[in-house]
């Protein structure tokens, strides 16, 4: 019987834990605040940001939202970040990616104060993660780590294959899996678009993390019997639904499920975890900035 890993349930636990710590902060006179910045007309980005704002409200985090015209000069975004860096009521800053082409993404990520960088993309925070001294773990790989822990998936000594090497998922995911300690100690292979024999790598994998962005790219025939399959992919495919599309992962769910020992569905797997870990990082940031002890699980 294949275990279906329930991201909604684990995310609800994380949110409950976060909400408790919001109260601890409130008792110390601190209301945690998260600023989201949107410089894009992309409907998907708009949806993501509004979901993040709604999530904040639910756990008692003050949401602050700034919208910048997608055609505005880059300086407008930089000025906004400078203002938010200086605000005492803002503990976390998230600039929704992608930013327009005329804005240099790296400059944006470097401009956010590392203490407020709840996405964990500032080079200082990337460096700390790699050094095994993470401040803010990027939300998606952190969420995956939480899922693995919640379902007692043994990572120590396991052969893990991460498919994808992006800065926001694949690379930090691999870094977390190779760290010493619980939820680490995995023997980790990173596959990407230039990998020669993906099927050969997957055939031996105890844990597969798929972050490719290609609908149903990995199927059951490529997996080892009993493997744990974490599907990060969220892909829109045309479908005969009200919206005209459906969401599918990077893994072909039905065939993978018949081989895997445990698997995440899409939606309802990694997605809700990503959202929950942003709240987690925001509360952690507020605690650090105000010297309030926050003991998040
Ligand atoms: P990306 O496009 O930045 O990276 C995709 C990676 O896949 C690249 O590193 C590339 O080398 C690799 N790749 C491409 N073709 C390949 C091939 N043929 N074989 C092996 N590897 C190949 O994407 P991303 O930002 O890492 O996102 C990946 C997917 O995860 C997307 O579907 C995205 O929507 C989704 N995503 C979901 C969440 C979530 O919360 N669940 C968060 C972030 C991203």
Automatic annotation (TrEMBL):
One of its GO terms (cellular component) is cytosol. Residues 5-119 form the Tetrahydrofolate dehydrogenase/cyclohydrolase catalytic domain. SUPFAM superfamilies: Aminoacid dehydrogenase-like, N-terminal domain, NAD(P)-binding Rossmann-fold domains. GO terms for biological process: L-histidine biosynthetic process; methionine biosynthetic process; purine nucleotide biosynthetic process; tetrahydrofolate interconversion. InterPro entries: Aminoacid_DH-like_N_sf, NAD(P)-bd_dom_sf, THF_DH/CycHdrlase, THF_DH/CycHdrlase_cat_dom, THF_DH/CycHdrlase_NAD-bd_dom. Keywords: Amino-acid biosynthesis, Histidine biosynthesis, Hydrolase, Methionine biosynthesis, Multifunctional enzyme, NADP, One-carbon metabolism, Oxidoreductase, Purine biosynthesis. Belongs to the tetrahydrofolate dehydrogenase/cyclohydrolase family. Catalyzes the oxidation of 5,10-methylenetetrahydrofolate to 5,10-methenyltetrahydrofolate and then the hydrolysis of 5,10-methenyltetrahydrofolate to 10-formyltetrahydrofolate. NCBIfam families: PRK14167.1. Homodimer. This is Bifunctional protein FolD. The lineage of its organism: Archaea, Methanobacteriati, Methanobacteriota, Stenosarchaea group, Halobacteria.
């Amino acid at each position: 019987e294949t275990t279906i890993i329930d991201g909604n349930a684990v995310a609800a636990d994380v949110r409950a834990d976060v909400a408790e710590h919001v109260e601890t902060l409130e008792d110390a006179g601190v209301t945690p605040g998260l600023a989201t910045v949107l410089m894009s007309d992309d409907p998907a980005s708009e949806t993501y940001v509004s979901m993040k704002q709604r999530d904040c409200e639910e756990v008692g985090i003050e949401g602050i939202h700034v919208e910048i015209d997608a055609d505005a000069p880059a300086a407008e975004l930089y000025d906004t970040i400078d203002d938010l860096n200086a605000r005492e009521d803002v503990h976390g800053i998230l600039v929704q990616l992608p930013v327009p082409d005329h804005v240099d993404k790296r400059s944006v990520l470097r401009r956010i104060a590392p203490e407020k960088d709840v996405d964990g993309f500032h080079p200082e925070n990337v460096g700390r993660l790699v050094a095994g001294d993470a401040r803010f773990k990027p939300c998606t790989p952190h969420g995956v780590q939480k899922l693995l822990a919640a379902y007692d998936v043994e990572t120590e000594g396991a052969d893990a294959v991460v498919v994808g090497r992006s800065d926001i998922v694949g690379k930090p995911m691999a870094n977390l899996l190779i760290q010493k300690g619980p939820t680490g100690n995995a023997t980790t292979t990173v596959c990407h678009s230039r990998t020669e024999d993906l099927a050969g790598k997957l055939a031996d994998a105890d844990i597969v993390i798929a972050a490719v962005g290609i609908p149903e790219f990995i199927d059951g025939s490529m997996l080892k019997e009993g493997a744990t399959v974490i599907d990060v992919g969220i892909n829109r495919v045309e479908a005969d639904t009200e919206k005209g599309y459906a969401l599918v992962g990077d893994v072909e769910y039905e065939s993978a499920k018949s081989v895997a020992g445990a698997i995440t569905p899409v939606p309802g797997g990694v997605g809700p975890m990503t959202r929950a870990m942003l709240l987690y990082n925001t509360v952690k940031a507020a605690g650090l900035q105000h010297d309030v002890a926050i003991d998040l699980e």
